[in-house]
Specification:
By secondary structure, the chain is an alpha+beta fold. It has 3 domains: 162 residues, Porin chaperone SurA, peptide-binding domain (Triger factor/SurA peptide-binding fold); 165 residues, Chitinase A, domain 3; 106 residues, Chitinase A, domain 3, CATH 3.10.50.40. It has 15 helices and 12 strands. It has a 4-stranded antiparallel beta sheet with strand order 2-1-11-12. Strands 4-3-6-5 form a 4-stranded antiparallel beta sheet, with helices on both faces. The longest helix has 32 residues. It is elongated, with a radius of gyration of 28 Å. The N terminus is likely disordered. Pfam families: Rotamase (PF00639), SurA_N (PF09312). It comes from Rhodanobacter glycinis.
């Protein structure tokens, strides 16, 4: 549990810098017995649009990474490389938060409370225990909440960016499922990306190719792949060892599918040239999807909607009257549905909803259906649409493997498009924003010191 919690704090610590924590650091140092005259002055290491990154923020994030790898410090790159990697993440996070603010993206305190509760549940803690665990790491609980808040803001920004730019058609799903390269199942991958800057010269490409070769040589010489990713990769997940986790084969970029298909678990690919650089892939493992069986229900439905002339209370009274006729007078549910239901989808069919999985018609109806026995009619219940009555007709177990495969293929295509869309967005955001690194040792050798926004 401690390791899981530590990893969570690490991810937040270097991905989302606390906005006010830098100002607290001198006070924390003073509390440890250092006088204000003896405190080293904090300095700005980077200007990001109208914001800044302080050296104390960078130090804190770097220390969090080093603490995670305290047992295996040899897996970390040289300190100067590590500091550049972490600074890159802090810069990108600042830019995303600034852009979200410009778009008016907001997260409420209640949403942060729910995020805190989720973190506590994932770590099998109460919220009070989580608070104590955060404070034991030396971080203030307020800063932890701020970091969660910022993480939620960036998630909202991601959703807004990809929402209108990503769509998946039925023909795309058909093409994927019928493709010779399509392969069911999942693969666990890790990767090393060596970026080539946009507008790269021949020299830039040669430098990237040499770095990719050095990474491969290190792996062939016995270096752990994750350690090589930390040391050589330019990807945002380099400090996670390049671990991509489990992915469906249909979620893999087509350019890499052939290579992965011909690999065995443990194999490492050669350096593959892509539009943004060189990629080295390790196949960690693979597994086949199990047969998927789902519980389906068959039911009838009546909806009584409120309107300009029917109040919600009157709708409830009508639903109760229909319930009494169904239960006490044994009226036909199908007949009443045709005569009285306001559900345009089912009324003409006598309220017949067909066979469906539990929550296909919403969680409220799903909860009622699951509690009923076959042939039983629910008491009237309310949703935002109005008042409902449902009659459960049957229950069955259905093989939904093929249906699930289509849905997973659709999701995989959508995820791939969303990932590419947001990656393009971040590249454009980074290249068009004003970023000035004030400490020469922290600037990448292959990029200029400042970029002016258009």
């Amino acid at each position: 549990m401690k390791q899981t919690f530590a990893l969570l704090l690490l991810a937040i610590a270097f991905a989302i810098p606390p906005l006010a924590h830098a100002q607290l650091l001198p006070q924390a140092a003073a509390g440890q017995g250092t006088t204000s005259q003896e405190q080293p002055l904090d300095r700005i290491v980077a200007v990001v649009e109208e914001n800044v990154i302080l050296e104390s923020e960078l130090d804190q994030a770097v220390q969090a990474v080093q603490q995670q790898y305290a047992q295996h410090p040899e897996q970390l790159p040289p300190t100067d490389v590590l500091r550049r990697q972490v600074l890159d993440r802090l810069i990108l996070m600042k830019l995303q938060l600034q852009r979200a603010d410009e778009q008016g993206i907001q997260v409420s305190d209640q949403e942060v409370d729910q995020a805190v509760a989720n973190v506590a549940q994932q770590n099998k803690m109460t919220t009070d225990q989580l608070r104590a665990a955060v404070q034991q790491t030396g971080q203030s609980y307020a800063a932890f909440r701020q970091q969660l808040h910022d993480q939620l803001v960036v998630q909202r920004l991601h959703q807004s960016v990809v929402h209108d730019s990503v769509s998946v058609t039925d023909s795309e799903v058909d093409n994927l499922l019928n493709s010779p390269t399509y392969k069911a199942g999942e693969v666990h991958l890790a990767h090393i990306d060596i970026n080539i800057p946009s507008g790269a010269s021949a020299t830039d490409i040669q430098v990237a190719a040499a770095k990719a070769k050095a990474a491969l040589d290190a792996i062939k010489g016995g270096m752990d792949f994750n350690a090589a990713a930390i040391r050589y990769s330019d990807a945002s997940d380099a400090l996670d060892g390049g671990d991509l986790g489990w992915r469906r084969m249909d979620a893999i970029p087509p350019a890499f599918v052939d290579t992965i298909t011909n690999m065995k678990p443990g194999d490492v690919s050669p350096a593959l040239r892509g539009p943004t650089g060189f990629h080295i892939i390790k196949l960690v493992g693979e597994r086949q999807p199990p047969k998927q069986i789902a519980t389906e229900f068959h039911a009838l439905h009546i909806l009584i909607k409120p309107s300009a002339v029917v109040s919600m209370q009157q709708a409830e009274q009508k639903a109760q009257s229909l319930y009494n006729r169904l239960v006490n007078k044994h009226a036909s549910f199908a007949t009443l549905a045709k005569e009285d239901s306001d559900d345009d989808t089912t009324a003409n069919n006598g309220g017949d909803m067909g066979w469906f999985q539990q929550n296909a018609w919403g969680s409220a109806i799903g909860q009622q259906i699951a509690q009923l026995k076959d042939g039983e009619v629910s008491k009237p219940f309310q949703t935002a649409e109005g008042w409902h009555l449902v009659k459960r007709l049957g229950e069955r177990q259905t093989d939904v493997t093929e249906k699930a495969a289509r849905e997973q293929a659709r999701q995989a295509i959508g995820n791939r498009k969303a990932e590419q869309a947001y990656d393009d967005y971040l590249r454009q955001l980074r290249s068009s924003s004003y970023v000035k690194i004030l400490v020469p040792a922290l600037a990448k050798p292959d990029e200029g010191n400042a970029k002016a926004s258009s």
